[in-house]
Amino acid sequence: MADTRTMAFNLLPLLCGLILAPFMIGVVNRTKAFFAGRNGQPLFQLYFDIFKLLRKGAVISRSTTWVFRGAPAVSLASIVFALAIFSFSQEGAALSFPGDIILAVYMLALARFATVLSALDTGSSFEGMGASREVMLAPFAEAAFLILILAAAAASGSISAATMFSAAVPLPVRILMFVSLFIVLLVENCRVPADDPNTHLELTMIHEVMVLDNSGPDLGMIFYAASLKLWLFASLTVCCIMPAGLTGSVAGDIAMRVAGVFCVSVLVGVVESVMARFRFDKVRRMLLFASALSSLALLIALGATA
Amino acid sequence: MNNSLQIVFILMIVANFAIIASSRIRGCIKLLSLQGVILSLVPFSHLDIPHALFFCTLILVVKALVFPALLQRALRVVRARRETEPIVGYSASIMLGLGALIFSFWLCGRMNIAGRGGSELGISAAVFTIYTGLFIIIARVKAITQVVGYVVFENGIYLLGSSLMLEQNILVELGVILDLLVFVLLSGIVVFHINKEFDHIDTNSMSDDGSAHKGVLP
Hints:
The complex is a heterodimer.
Chain A: H1 2-36, H2 45-55, H3 66-86, E1 88-89, E2 92-93, H4 100-121, H5 125-156, H6 161-164, H7 171-188, H8 207-210, H9 216-241, H10 250-274, H11 280-305
Helix pairs in contact in A: 1-3, 1-9, 1-10, 2-9, 3-4, 3-9, 4-5, 5-7, 5-11, 7-9, 7-11, 9-10
Chain B: H1 3-21, H2 25-39, H3 49-78, H4 90-111, H5 120-139, H6 143-164, H7 169-198, H8 209-214
């Protein structure tokens, strides 16, 4: 009986993510609407959109191959995989083993790879441009993220995601990790200083331009995967500030985490409302700055344990 | 070591990175002022409250208010907005800064200071700030940015002094602040006059075509 209970608690954070992620996009959009003085779209708009798209048929260009048809599913599956590793409570994760964090990073990279490949597969010059921009920023975002993970590993002495973001990591390191991860979140999820999710100018966007040819259920999967990715990064960002085991009970922890994620989405909305999009070279500079913060966290973590 | 002091040192390092990465001179000066505010918290770590309050106010007034105000004034007069062609690009500057940071940590790890009551993170931050200041002086071409680099350099020296907990720190520091005040005043005047003669404050083009440009200087 105890085993089933533990298992349920391990799956709970993952389920929260799978169910609540589209709602989080609604919170971001409502925050932006508030700043613009509008009422904004319904909080559940993305659910409606996804269900509408799932009921539609897909239009697939004749110039594309199976790569284009398979990419949305691959990308969604690998993000769910990464989310399973990163959704943890203090008692464990839905999926956890030593070194799992590297696999999660690779899963995120695989999702990106599939999207880029499908964009190139369409043969559209716009999508090719979006793909080239995506891979231009990707290594810098991954560097910042990986160094940050190293810092957490060095400070906590663990190489599993579930125990890495713990209270054993000193507070200054956790604050640095929070800031760095938030910058990575903005870039990885194509939020404002890096990319504008609302723009319809193919010349300036990154992620949106790569999925221009997708329609119907494929587009629904892409939307859902994007919201899951935002949830993944937001919950990790929250874990930097509020490590697992803060409230004592597992359920309380998960509730705190979910509340924290919505705070982060409000923060994302505020950033989007008060900032303009950066030039591309400035985005790269911002990511290098995030890498510098991660490296500083790593150096301090090494100094603290030595 | 307590967390709050550690956070002060970390903020110092982050401010250095921000100064390295910012292309607008006005932004640089604002960050310099922020660095002054951060620096003014350092005296509380090793002095008794009345002394610390005195130094905190002194640093706050000189480094967070007077210097930035003087530099802003010079900037207004010369109408330079940003470093158009830095010698080292901004992304490369961050990478070099990262190298300097790692080197400073390695260096201070070897110095074995923690045993003598100093703060290791503080000295790493100080050495890194010194490197940053020197780097800005050589990597940027506008005279105002070079003055910013000089002030950052001096901030590093102050931080080094207080991290090593030198006994005579107060006297030394008073002297340095006085020196620096004179320096910034002078450089403000110099920058203004360079600008008047040459129409720009680009130090690279002063040696050759500057005089030919207007034919004023011998």
